[in-house]
Specification:
By secondary structure, the protein is α/β, with parallel strands linked by helices. Helix content is 29%, strand content 20%.
Length: 456
């Protein structure tokens, strides 16, 4: 029988906010254990730094300019929320289900119509309703399509539901459990007081900086909960620690059920988050124009399975969620549903099981958000906003905080030209012209995606 897969995705968990990635303030012993005994990807990125498109990329293995979801999908608008936005796409859970896996979703879906179980899932326990909402109290969940109101912190409710699935699953089939935590999302308040108080009383290292010099703040950056920066950061760290406790409970459960060596655990986030860095509170839509700041695009990515993957390694290759899709398909031995050239990702399995090395891996990381496109090398990052800019070029070695825009500097004209050509070649190879982000004119408005769909 094939091995099991537990894919844990956090909402807005920036790579910087994890002990294993160098943060000495936040307490994350369980995730640190996974990173230290598994394979930790030091340069992991999201393809799109906002919720719905990032999740669509992870589930389909395809770029936003292929699957067509370009911004967050609000549950407040019935025409948006009532639609199944991945209809017509073949998703990882569908592929695994067809291969004999018992599949389950627990937590955030955020791709439309979360009240009803979506294709590819045998078990469905989705957090249903508006995002963001309070982290504790009574919240609404869809339990196999039946709406229930359950009181308690979301992290605890979702961990309970995941453990319930592990205990009642079919023992003759491998499982794919897709667990989606939401506690690290705004608003930065209402986390468990026992955890908040721990951080509130400590002198936390200041992550804040001067205002973002290339645009104005937007969306989460205007929430009142960020006005007391120390309190907001204490709440955010408390959310990370609360999530970490849930991961620890899951690891204990797998061990108690003798499933730990037969289960691949993957931990990541849909995208990153700024908590005052660059003066921004939020992710890619925390500024106008939209941004590709390192804190917005970098995500934690950890793989752990004792006995099958080579543990204790820290990999430096550029990787993203398109690669995670290919990796899990490869791990499960399921074929791709479309011609391989339509998938930009690449399986990490030869790196993770130590059967190959990183030679020949790509030297560039690409990203997009609507009509913004990015390419990043080890030294330079080019952010191109089509058709009229503004555009940015940063020398990340000399200016890791992205404070000096070199785009108009004639000394870097050749760098801009070369990287621009790489953006054109990459998206020219993979994008669907009908679903291209270049057809989206005015983000961040999720219903612009709907308008683009209607125009198509």
């Amino acid at each position: 029988m094939a091995d099991n897969i537990l894919l844990i995705t956090a909402d807005d968990h920036g790579q910087w906010a994890l002990g294993a990635y160098g943060n000495r303030d936040v307490h994350t012993p369980n995730l640190d254990y996974l990173a230290n005994t598994g394979a930790q990807m030091a340069n992991a990125f999201t393809p799109t730094p906002v919720c719905s498109p990032a999740r669509a990329c992870l589930l389909t293995g395809r770029l936003a300019s292929q699957h067509g979801v370009h911004d967050y999908l609000s549950s407040r608008e019935p025409a948006v929320h009532g639609r199944e936005w991945l209809a017509g796409e073949t998703t990882l859970p569908q592929m695994l289900q067809a291969a004999g896996y018992e599949t389950a979703l627990v937590g955030k879906w955020h791709l439309g119509n979360d009240e009803q179980p979506q294709s590819g899932f045998d078990s469905w326990f989705a957090l249903s309703g508006d995002y963001p909402t309070e982290h504790g109290g009574a919240n609404r969940y869809s339990d196999q399509g039946r709406l229930r109101t359950i009181a308690g912190f979301k992290a605890q409710v979702l961990t309970d539901a995941a453990i319930s699935f592990l205990r009642r699953r079919e023992r003759t089939r491998p499982f794919f459990l897709f667990l989606n935590y939401v506690g690290t999302h705004s608003p930065w308040r209402g986390q468990p007081e026992r955890l908040v108080n721990h951080y509130r009383r400590r002198r936390l290292r200041d992550v804040g900086e001067a205002a973002y010099p290339f645009g104005r703040q937007a969306l989460e950056s205007t929430l009142p909960t960020r006005r007391d920066a120390h309190e907001a950061l204490a709440q955010y760290y408390a959310a990370v620690t609360h999530l970490d406790e849930g991961v620890g409970r899951l690891m204990d459960e797998l061990e108690a059920l003798s499933l730990d060596e037969a289960t691949l655990i993957v931990y990541t986030a849909d995208h990153g988050l700024n908590c005052g860095q660059h003066g921004v509170w939020g992710k890619g839509n925390g500024t106008l124009p939209l941004n590709m700041l390192e804190e917005s695009i970098r995500v934690p990515l950890i793989f752990k399975q004792a006995g099958r993957l080579f543990g204790g390694q820290r990999r430096a290759e550029f990787v993203d969620h398109l690669d995670v899709f290919r990796t899990l398909a490869d791990y499960a031995g399921v074929p791709l549903p479309r011609a391989e050239q339509t998938y930009a990702g690449r399986s990490l399995l030869p790196l993770l099981d130590n059967s190959g090395d990183g030679r020949g891996w790509r030297a560039r990381q690409f990203g997009e958000y609507g009509n913004l496109r990015m390419v990043r090398s080890q030294q330079f990052k080019l952010v191109h906003r089509y058709p009229d800019g503004p555009c940015e070029l940063f020398d990340l070695r000399a200016d890791p905080r992205e404070t000096t825009n070199l785009f108009e500097d004639t000394a870097y004209a050749a760098v801009v030209a070369a990287l621009s050509a790489e953006i054109d070649a990459y998206f020219g190879r993979y994008e669907d012209p009908v679903r291209s982000g270049l057809r989206v004119q005015a983000l961040p408005r999720h219903n612009d995606t709907e308008a683009w769909r209607a125009a198509a």
